[in-house]
Amino acid sequence: MTSRFSRGVGIGIAGALALALTACGGSDSGPGGVSGEDYEGPAVDITFWHGWTGGAAPTIVPKLIDQFNAEHENITVKNVPQEWADIASKMPLAIRAGKGPDVAVLHGDDLATYAAQNLLQPADEIIQGLGYSADDFPPGVFEMGDFRDAQYAVPWSVTPLGLFANKEVMAEADLTEIPTDRDGYLEALEALKQAGVEGEWVDGYVFTGTFEFQSLVWQFGGELYDEDVQEATFNSEAGVNALTWMTDLVDKGYSPANVAQDGNIKALLAGDTAFNWNGVWQTTNTAFGDLDWEAAPVPQIGDQKAVWSSSTHWVFPANKGQDADKTAAAATFVKWMNDNSLGWAETGELPAANTVREDPELLSTYPSLEPFMAQLEYAHYETVSPGINEANALITTAINEALTGKKTPQEALDDAKAKADAVLEQNREKYGD
């Protein structure tokens, strides 16, 4: 990969860093010198924490860092990969002790939790200096970093859900086109059933069933929470319609009951089912091998187009005594990484930077990404609210209870809503409104 997209770091970052670091307790040195396109301060070593430990990432990240270090004589980036769970447990303590990273990557649903604890630097002026705005990324993803009227993050990647189809299984029911809407999808499932195939194996696990449910809630016009995330709303009519759609797949014989975790993708690969709602990350699944498969946008089951997507973001930790030179150098690193992120698609994630995704080389190299990119105009991202993951876990529980017949969709969602509201209240007490 080359630096042909590089635009460098804006001149205004030095002053921004001085303001940001004053807010988080000052700095051991003055603000980093930034001039022209890159950091021009004294030589610094910066640490970079991330959770990319699987797939192609452990190969790609070190190569990118080596290239960056070779092009920047005054910046040495130290790569610190670790499991995401370890980051969640270690990084808050490390930041408070002044021993955290100079730059890190977080998932979108973690940003508000860190920001509410003053673990991240407000980065509005840093981002302005980098030349970024919401228009540089897919709709809605830049706003993920906005918390209490401050911007804390720069988008790095997005990972929407899609529909994976086994064309060989479709052919057993004389299906040649992947369905795009409710009627077409039901017709395909019925045709597959008549051919002895359960067309979509639906489950109650996070990376498949939960994200399918959330996509359907938005398609039916609902929301998971109210606008201020004070109350759960996933038990609305839209939520019940979404979960009923999923339970109907089992009741009508289009899906087996009690599908095990990852059972649906395994069934797709084994030729036991035709369709699987799954994330863009499956495009790099080597198990597909010579299988005749294709990815497509998720079908529109409800009244509007919508699809779930996750996101990852660059953040600048507010270490006690954080060195402003190091944060300025980290800003240069973030910009360079985004500008050189075309090859990141090899990990099964879409680069967030529009300039990179719009490069024809991306789809010529990774053609299976096209349907996922087409969905970004109507993708919905994680809820931004401190401590939200505990409430989100209750959604998964409700889906599982309904799919296994323990409760009706309405009962399962009502019970989950009551517990989620209690979690949201606890979060307000812990993190403030």
Describe the structure.
The chain has 433 residues and is an alpha+beta fold. It is built from 16 helices and 13 strands. It has helices at 13-23, 57-71, 84-96, 111-116, 124-130, 167-172, 182-194, 206-219, 237-251, 263-270, 324-339, 354-357, 360-365, 370-374, 388-403, 409-431, and strands spanning 34-35, 38-39, 44-50, 75-81, 103-107, 146-147, 150-151, 154-166, 275-279, 293-296, 307-315, 350-351, 379-380. The strands form three sheets. Strands 3, 4, 5, 8, 9, 10, 11, 12 and 13 form a nine-stranded mixed sheet that branches. Strands 1-2 form a two-stranded antiparallel ribbon. A two-stranded antiparallel sheet has the order 6-7. α1 packs across α11 (324-339).
User: Percent of residues in beta strands?
Assistant: 5-15%
The average pLDDT score comes to 92
The helix content is 40-55%
Q: Using only CA atoms, what is the Rg? A: 23 Å
Count of separate DSSP helical elements = 16
The N- and C-terminal alpha carbons lie at a distance of 44 Å
- Tell me the structural class: alpha+beta
Order of helices and strands: HEEEHEHEHHEEEHHHHHEEEHEHHHEHH
Q: Would you count the extended β strands for me?
A: 13
The biggest beta sheet, please?
Answer: 9 strands, mixed
List low-pLDDT spans.
1-36
Shape summary: globular
